[in-house]
Amino acid sequence: MYKVILPFRYLFQKRISYLAFLAVALCVFIVVVVMTVMTGLVTDFKQKNHQFVGDCVVGTESLVGFAYYEDFVKILEREDFIEGVSAAIKSYALVSPSGTEQNTGVEIMGIDPVRHSQATGFGKTLYYHKDDVSKAFEPAYNPESSGLVAGIDLMLMRDAKGRYAYEADPVEMAFAVSCFPLTAKGALVKADTGLVNTETFYYSDISHSGLARVDSSMVYLPFERAQLLCGMAGPAKRANTLHIKFKPNVKLAAGCEKVASLWHRFADEKGGDKRADLLKKVTVQSWKNYRRAFIAPMEKEQTMLTVMFALVGITTVFIVFVVFYMIISHKSKDIGILKSIGVSNGNIIKLFSGFAFLVGLLGSGLGVLAGWFFLLKINQIENWLFERFGFQLWDRTIYVIGDIPNTIDLKVLAVIILSAIAACLAGAFVPSHQAATSAPVEALQVNQL
Amino acid sequence: MSQDDFLLKAEGIHKSYRMGAAEVKVLKGVDLAVRQGEFLAIVGASGSGKSTLLHILGALDGPDKGIVRVEGMDLSRLSASELNEFRNKMVGFVFQFYHLLDELNVLENVFLPDMASKGILGWLASRGRAKKRARELLTQLGLAERAEHKPYQLSGGERQRVAIGRALMNEPRLLLVDEPTGNLDSATGNGILNIFEKLNRAGQTIVMVTHDERIAKRARRIITLADGKTENRRTTSE
Fold it and tell me: Chain B within 8 Å of A10 (Cβ-Cβ)?
């Protein structure tokens, strides 16, 4: 019972114990806040990347695209693990507001808005047609004309707080979109072949994906119009990518494997056809692999941050070690007394381990509570700092970040608390072991600090 | 006299310490025998090794050479857990500087040896009995009113009485006392010695070490420790 009573008394009756307690609380507070914000940013970024594409992407990086995609879409649609498939055209274009000479280079994506919303999160990114994506390319002011959906940063300005100045309805604007149509062999289509490479579209909606590059350079066009502009509407129609959404119970890797298997069989069957060579460049990838170039740097930053916090953790262990060394040196006399009444070395180690456990548990508890409260108010604090001193954690005119993420991940929290307790136990073990294994007489005669 | 007649018997005890490069031989073949119910004082000058001898007799330290037997049991043959049990049940220590735990109150300090000998469930089952005995001891020692006080709230004499209570908690066969009045004024010290005399009259075996001849005279037998060896001087019957 003394192994329960004494740790509590050591904790609450010795001022030096508060040092260890506060050191743990402070470290846990910092780790909880930074890890929550960073994990939130990475998770949010991944979600947005996932929302931008399907669960699985069949496609080619080549602007020429690949043929026979319609046949493969039909095969996919017969599979019961697939919820939606959307073919897309991807290319580059010059956009200029009608009546001006100004050109802006953009990426274009030709999509069927309904199918694309079934396969990706496209519908959720719209502002005016969120509830009826089928009309995404129908400008409210001129429903008969072809519309375009522009990345939000191409159309609207953000204020210093990162808020967009939305209009109640899209402003009437026409844009001339000029593409670079390519033949199936990859050559630029000659000017005298009759292919259209410039067309006027009317601004019908904006897309806010939350991905800086997409929002500042992407223009969505109706699928057939984009296919025509890119020279892909010939006898063997071509597309660049197929976005595939799996049913909810399908695991990503298993779904992608099935799609890959279907694709290889399909490509083999089409092997003798005229445009079969284009199929060789097609890959089947999960959304994570498809967007790896964008996600990987963020994950690297997170890994670096984790390593940095591992160093913070080591520092914490050292601080706790020093504090415990002081506390246990201070308690040498107690150890001698306990030994003189027959307490074993093992029980002395257990007693101080219990003390360390308490310091770890209560210290991390306080750190978590403080971190949780701080995170709860982090956006209000940032707003206050911005209004009072003009300080922002991230400049919202540069970074596509709305509110600072503050949703605490319980798994991360559990790992932090367990690590803090482990750090305390590790910090306490050496001095308590050293003190416990000393001769009782030595322990009784040690001068207290 | 056979071995069975003695509660404690030490034979040929040697102990030395290293002080830098030099080896200081403190005990050079000490022989000692204590009967059940004796009150023995070991007198010696400061640094003569009397505390070292007391620690060896109570298994707080081991001799370099020699044998200590308590009730015929050779302490050097005991395992670590048996030595812990020996220190918990067979002997009670009273130190010059009291050595009480500051975080526990007086009552808790007294029943600590009983608590230390039991697991949580064992303690919960027997704590009523242990607290009752601790309160009885405090009453005998005149500290019933101080049971809930912390050691720092007590005078030196009171602290020493608490230490005596703790030493007696598990009804040890042998009470080992190290300079019990060394830190007290003479009146308070006298009160402490009265307690030891009373305990001895009740049958408690006591071995006390002191440098003070006047204090030693309160014991029934005195042994002098000089030059690392013991010398019998007198008993009360002489």
Answer: yes
Cβ neighbours of B85 in A, within 8 Å: 342
Q: Which long-range contacts (CB under 8 A, 24 or more apart) does A251-260 make?
A: A252/A55, A252/A56, A252/A286, A252/A287, A252/A288, A253/A286, A255/A55, A255/A56, A255/A81, A255/A82, A256/A55, A256/A56, A256/A284, A256/A285, A256/A286, A258/A79, A258/A81, A259/A56, A259/A58, A259/A76, A259/A284, A260/A284
The CATH class given to the B37-62+79-232 domain equals alpha beta
Chain B residues close to A9, C-beta within 8 Å: 103-104
Number of structural domains (chain A) is: 2
Look up the ipTM and state it: 0.90
Q: Across the interface, do B108 and A5 touch by the CB < 8 Å criterion?
A: yes
What pLDDT tens digit does each residue of chain A (449 aa) get? 777 888 888 888 777 788 888 888 988 898 888 888 888 888 888 899 999 999 999 999 899 999 999 999 999 999 999 999 999 999 999 999 887 888 889 999 999 999 999 999 999 999 999 899 999 999 988 888 999 999 999 998 887 777 888 888 888 999 999 988 888 777 777 766 666 688 999 999 999 998 888 999 999 999 999 999 998 987 789 999 999 999 999 999 999 999 999 999 999 998 777 777 888 889 999 999 999 988 888 888 878 887 887 787 777 778 777 877 888 777 888 888 999 999 988 888 888 888 889 988 999 999 999 999 999 999 899 888 888 888 877 776 666 677 888 888 888 889 888 988 888 888 888 888 887 888 778 777 644 33
The domain of A221 spans: 54-290
Put simply, the answer to whether A345 touches B88 (Cβ < 8 Å) is: no
Q: Which of B60, B93, B209 to mutate to test the interface with A (most CBs of A within 10 A)?
A: B60
B61: burial class by Cβ within 10 Å (0-12, 13-18, 19+)? middle
Q: Using a CB–CB cutoff of 8 Å, tell me whether A446 touches chain B.
A: no
Q: Give A-chain residues touching B104 at CB under 8 angstroms.
A: 5-6, 9
Instruction: Look at residues A273, A290, A307 and tell me which one is the last residue of a structural domain.
Output: A290
For residue A337, list chain B residues with Cβ-Cβ distance below 8 A: 99-101
Q: How far off is chain A from B5, nearest CA to CA, in Å?
A: 26
Same-domain check for residues A269 and A320: no
Q: Are residues A283 and A319 in the same domain?
A: no
Does the beta carbon of A435 lie under 8 angstroms from any beta carbon of chain B? Answer: no
